[in-house]
Amino acid sequence: MEVDRADGRTRNQLRPLACTRCTLNRAHGSATWSQGETKVLAAVFGPKAGTKKNENPEKACIEVIWKPKTGQIGKPEKEYEMILKRTLQSICLLTVNPNTTTSIIVQVVNDDGALLPCAINAACAALVDAGIPLKHLAVAICCCLADGGYVILDPCKLEEQRTKAFAYLVFPNLLASVHRKGSLQVEVEPVEHGIITSVTRGVMPVEDYLRCLERGRAVSAKLSEFLRRSMQLQAPSDSPTAG
Amino acid sequence: MEQRLANTWQMTVNEKKFIETALLSDLRVDGRRPFDYRRLIIKFGREDGLSEVQLGHTHVMGFVTSQLVQPYRDRPNEGTLAIFTEFSPMADPSFEAGRPGESAVELGRIIDRGLRESRAIDTESLCVVAGKFVWAIRIDLHILDNGGNLVDAANIAALAALSTFRRPECSLGGKDAQEVIVHPPETREPLPLIIHHLPIAVTFAFLGKDNIVVVDPTHYEEAVMGGRMTATVNMNGDVCAIQKAGGVGVMHSVIMQCLRIASVKAADMTTKIKNAVSTSLYAYSPQVESYKTERSQRMIKRHTSTAAVDVSEPSHKEINVLLRHHLERSTIRSGELIASSSNAMEIETQLSEQDEKQRDGGARTFIGGPSNWDPLSKGVDSDALKVSLASRGAVRANTKLEESKIENLDVFEQSHPLADVNPVPPLHEVAAIDLQTKGERTLKDAVKPKHKRKKKPSSKTDAS
Question: One matching Pfam family, short form (chain B) (predicted)?
């Protein structure tokens, strides 16, 4: 494997991951997620009574508020909010608490590339911390196309700016990591191999996109393992949060 | 309308009576005495100008950026200072996103008055070309968690962020010396702001029908208080600002007593902030050297990683180098090691000499400056933590040796520091500071493999 990335990583190496839950006191659930230098803090409040005006009252409603590190809230932030909302809507069990609103607030602490995947991971961890009923978890990864035409994972900000195309991919959490059944089982294949969200920027050939997908899916196994372990280890020491 | 009411948190009559009755015997709900502050934790981010303050359960993040702008017409040779407060909805369910409410504006104004009117920040030194270019300092305060007394916590966050902020150096060049060249931090050392004094805000709450005074109210006490007053004083005893907006009327003798208490608290708080800043700056300073080391580190990283590829089993080496550094860091070289890690030690001794030399050579370039960094200054029980990390790392390493997948390595090795909930934030801060500290070789080496795979942002300018 060549080592031609600026920070010495190979193509398939992720930056160091860190996840902590229950960081805030007033929020019902909170988590921070950092990939290398990129760090995002997510907090969850809910379920609160009532839904917004144009939402279906027979289902729970998800509301996402994205807070950038500095500056006004503009169109990019609104786009992130929309992507996060749709992604999280697909993993939450919306029929358990109808006519309620769950708010997820995402605060960017530091942005060094792959911000949206980091935020999705943080939001997912915060939802788990709050105890919102979920179908499965979501793991997000960023794949970008390097100059040589190969796929590199988890770019930092400079790599992201220099690349001609990148894709944010969100996969469902692998059930194999929960049941510990070794390699993938045939019966759970349809769920594991689905893509929840895919956001691409730039022009990339179709084969490269498919390669990104395949690489992302492979990494999602590792990410799921990490997520599951960090949830598990912190569970016994959870303290009840204030109301 | 009813939905919003249903979502707001109401204080019960029992809680209110309990707080007031307990105060009659000089007791507060969290066990403090009436004039005690809660525990203060100040943390800094890796970049300049980012601070995170925890005052009890209140959590505030401060971020300072700078930009070259045109000055105001009536002050052509002074820089500007702007404070933006964000009452994030994550802090309190009653905070709403969007336009700042009146309490957010009030908080911003109190902090602004304390800094600007008292001339705490020297704005004349921010002038580059009079009438054309001055530095505009922007302070963003994000309220992350509302545990009460947001003013004091936000003020401390602003002061801490300003103390560690570095603006890029700029010089005049081009024709007629009218063009301003902003130097990136790699070429010229960024400059700190000139801060004359630290104005500390101390908030008092008046509770009960006797108007008992308490310092640093929690949000329960804020819900039952009759009135509040914030006094901004500095260590020299100067009153920078006083804010008492409405609320219950208090005797002027009580106000004078509050001011006296405030000056005592301000002195105490100033030393705490200065200690926290100097501990972090100690690790960061001198700035030029740390940037130089980062540059040389980037070059060294390239060399060592190519060396790793040459050796037949890179995964073993990575694991064992990591282990070795963890072990060195815990300063328990032999004997007390757990049995599983002793296997790793044996493998390590088989490693080639050239690898050692490579790593040592790389490590030595980091050394410069004081070598007595105290790992306990952050209050982490580092020895116990490092032993537990080393043991966990060893166990994992043995199970993973068979797999030998490098791409797993990053994820797994780094997940162990997360296993302990409490020490995680200090460890990351410790690790972050480790990188830039001129500590002993062992501490540097301990951090180096972890950061080896991270990209150092080559442009650290905060100025846009």
Answer: RNase_PH_C
Q: How far is A142 from chain B (nearest CA, A)?
A: 15
Chain A residues lying within 8 Å of B428, measured CB to CB? 18, 34
CB A103 within 8 A of CB A143: no
Q: Strands A17-21 and A29-35, how do they pair? A: antiparallel
Distance CA B267, CA B269 (A): 6
DSSP letters along B52-65, please? EEEETTEEEEEEEE
Place of tokens 């911003």: B108
ipTM above 0.95, yes or no: no
Please give the helix or strand (H or E) that residue A43 lies within, else none.
strand A38-49
pTM (2 d.p.): 0.71
Kindly report, residue by residue over A126-158, the tens digit of the pLDDT: 999 999 999 989 999 999 988 887 888 998 888
Please report where in the chains the tokens 């009574």 appear, as a residue.
Answer: A49
Contacts of B457 in chain A (CB under 8 A): 37, 112, 156-158
Q: Which of B47, B408, B419 sits opposite A233 (nearest CB)?
A: B419
Condensed to tens digits (0 to 9), the pLDDT of residues B197-210 reads 999 999 999 998 88
Test the A interface: residue of B51, B454, B459 with most A CBs within 10 Å: B454
d(CA A61, CA A96): 11
- Three-state secondary structure of B349-398: HCCCHHHHHHHHHHHHCCCCCCCCCCHHHHCCCHHHHHHHHHHHHHHHHH
Under 8 Å between Cβ of B182 and B459: no
* Residues in B touching A4 (Cβ below 8 Å): none
